[in-house]
Amino acid sequence: MRGRKPWLRGLSCVATLLGGLLVAAAPSASAATRYEAEDATISQGAVESNHAGYSGAGFVNGDNVAGSYTEWTVTAANAGTATLAVRYANGTAADRPSDVSVNGTVVAAARSFPATANWDTWATVTLTAPVTAGANKIRLTAAGAGGNPNLDWLEVDVAAASTDYQAENAQLSQANVATNHTGYTGTGFVDYVNTVGGYVQFSVTAAAAGPASLTFRYANGTAVDRPLDVTVNGTLVASGLSFPATANWDTWQSRAVNATLNAGANTVRATAITADGGPNLDKLTVAAASDTQLPTIPGQPSCSNITATGLTLSWGASTDNVGVAAYDIYHDGNKLAEAPGNVTSRALTGLSPATEYRLSVFARDAAGNVSPSSAQAICTTLSSSDTVPPTAPSGLAFSSVTSTGARLTWTASTDNVGVTAYEVRSGSNVYATVTGNPPAAAVTVGGLACDSPYTLTVVARDAALNTSAPSNAVSFRTSACSSDGGTPSSVTGISTGWSIPWGTAWMPDGQTALVTERDTFRVYKVTPAGARTQVGTVPNTMTTDGEGGLMGVAVDPAWATNHYVYFMHTASEGNRIARMTYDGSALSGYTVLVQGIRKNRYHNGGRLAFGPDGYLYASTGDAQTSSLAQDRNSLNGKILRMTTTGAPAPGNPFGTLVYSMGHRNPQGLAFDRNGRLWEAEFGNSSQDELNLIKPGANYGWPTCEGTCSVAGMTNPKASWPVAQASPSGIAIVRNVVYMGALRGERLWRIPINGDTESVGTPTAYYVGAYGRLRTVTKVPNADQLWMSTTNADNNGGGGPGSDQIFRITIS
User: Mean pLDDT over residues 236-256, rounded?
Assistant: First the structure.
């Protein structure tokens, strides 16, 4: 088998839904239809039978090349949403992702097919996709050089047939049939009059009483939402259902709601509730009710068969109203593996020796609903029996020195088992890591500070984490700095004894700042010299035993008159944005402004910032349910923009709190001199991002991680491998973005190119010097930053009280 990136570091987390505009229907009651792989069309592969456990006459073994594929011809009795289940085996140690397409359209790019225990062990990957009535071509195309996994069968279950009701045939009040825009179905569409009270009423027939999904196809070429009240047989089932703006009047999207129908005749009415009237309506589609129920929490996980590089994780089964499709396994906030929904254990391989793993399990159904987190299993791998370190690299040399980096080459090391990585170091600080099988004996080191001296060595590492002696040292000085924006010139420690200081907000007079502690729920005021005094706690806050708790803080620009401050925190039902009164000495008067932001152990977002427009901005994570990031009607995976009462701010692109979407776990928010919003967010396993946020833009998660070429997705302005960043807070000083890195343990400097939308070359400071950097905040009326650490969290291992706040001067 050809070598590829280890699957534990390279798993791609791709949503099983196609986005918030697709209505996911519950699977039909009929049995799924099975299509054997050996009967499919095969390109660059063969039918084989040399492994056990397959069904039918054999399985398909594709060639180890990108582009090899297996394609089934599938017959659907009706158009609708199909649940696709692919049975496969992957006896390598690496993921074998595949692009899944239906009738030539990719519905899941690089869908993960993780390693199974061996080639005789079969697992199932499940996703949903739209199909047409009659014949459909479903193709799995290898996305990497390793090819596809071995494929046994595809099972297809199409949701129950739906019925379309054309709007032009409905009963209309203060609305008219029109044909002056393209893309409608039937003979026309309905154009509401711009007034309150206009309606479209459909006559719907149901074969039996029960829940149903009502999907309205609409267009809204304005810049504002046009909500509707939806009633069924005179009973209100959706108040003010949002119909956000579409790209123009020729662009049609779908909006769905569940409701209960009577057997026989029903009336479904959609009534405009604002002076703008309703959107243009094309049709109503009635089908089986959407599955919105979360699976139950999986039972307590436990570890067995622990070795130096692996273990078996077992857990109690989750239940679901339709069925559990898969389990996702996380170490802290990073996904390690997944398992089919019909099993309750998973062998994890490729782990590091003598390392503590904090493992959680999440259940997921075919509609993409994800359960809350299981309890954690804390397990430590054994020390390796391999105690022989690699030989030291030799002949280290440098070339191509620039202001931000240099090229290094060396003679490769040898090892009794095999070298797995090289680390470029300055003392104990790691500036670059080279992996591979074997890893290359050369690397271009980037992110160095300009006009600075460096002395570097290289060490070799094997799979048992044995490290060689260092190579010979090389010394050089990077080229001169650009004068734009200044550079960090000094660091001063001003306050110690903190435990995960998460958010910092300066008071308008610049004489004190408010600082939150995530896990203690305490709020302190801190002077510029570092003296601190507790001013209170935030009520109703609770931890998630992960990344939730008391997070962001923001001070009202009008604090002098209203004394308001704002907090984002985790509560019993989810994440909240709350307001309190602060008189300069104590907090009081807790008021909830926003609820309905789902929480989970990880991916809670949490940053708050006031913009120059006077509105409050908030970052929210996807709560480990990646499909929420693409759902406009969810508050998760978004940047929110609101008034100081928690209402949607005027001019929001969809008429809701949502300002931008497609975010995984956004953490940093800062405004530049032109009032533009910049944001930093955690990637999954590949790329972290710095984004320039625009209203209504879609930043791609989970379809994209880092830069991609998918239409409708907005690419980041800069990105980093996750080992170099895991960004949290950001601040802007003299048109330069400063970004704190948790896992990367460094401060990134990213200059904005004048007033353009591009950035210059990022450079790194303080690599490994202070540990995990959480919050970076500009000091008022000074070219200075405050930078806080969170070494006391699970990943830092420093223990309570080990965190600090530093002051950085920019010159």
Answer: 87
Both structure tokens of 446: 């980037």
Pairing verdict, β 150-158 and 33-36: antiparallel
- What gap in Å lies between CA 432 and CA 203, rounded to an integer? 65
Element (H, E) at 396: strand 394-399
Model confidence, pTM: 0.61
Distance, in Å, from the CA atom of 676 to the CA atom of 699, rounded to the nearest integer, reads: 16
As a whole number of angstroms, the distance between CA 498 and CA 515 comes to 10
Q: Which residues of 697-735 are buried (b: 16+ CB within 10 A; e: fewer)?
A: bbbbbbbbbbeeeeeebbbbbbbbbbebbbbbbbbbbeb
Task: Give the separation between CA 526 and CA 590, rounded to whole angstroms.
Answer: 22
Tokens of 731: 């601040």
Write down the mean pLDDT value for the chain. Answer: 89
Q: How far apart are CA 807 and CA 779, in angstroms?
A: 9
Structural contact between residues 93 and 349, judged by C-beta atoms closer than 8 angstroms = yes
Instruction: Kindly report which listed range (29-43, 267-281, 467-481, 566-580) carries the lowest average pLDDT score.
Output: 29-43
List the Cα angle 598/603/605 in 5-degree steps: 80
pLDDT of residue 483: 55
Residues catalogued as catalytic: 603
pLDDT of residue 15: 28
CA atoms of 630 and 247, how far apart (whole Å):
16
Per-residue pLDDT, 6:
28
Write out the two tokens for 173.
Answer: 């009040």
Classify burial at 33, counting beta carbons within 10 Å of its beta carbon; exposed 0-12, middle 13-18, buried 19 or more. middle
pLDDT band of 29, cuts 50, 70, 90: very low
Q: What is the CA radius of gyration of the chain?
A: 28
Least confident of 95-99, 153-157, 374-378, 444-448: 444-448
Sign of CA dihedral 792, 797, 799, 802: negative
Q: Which two tokens stand for residue 256?
A: 């769905």
Contacts of 459 (CB under 8 A, 6+ apart): 392, 393, 422, 423, 425, 467, 468, 469, 470, 471
Q: Would you state the structure tokens that stand for residue 622, as one six-digit string?
A: 């996807």
Q: Distance between CA atoms of 639 and 658, rounded to whole angstroms?
A: 6
Cβ–Cβ under 8 Å, residues 310 and 350: yes
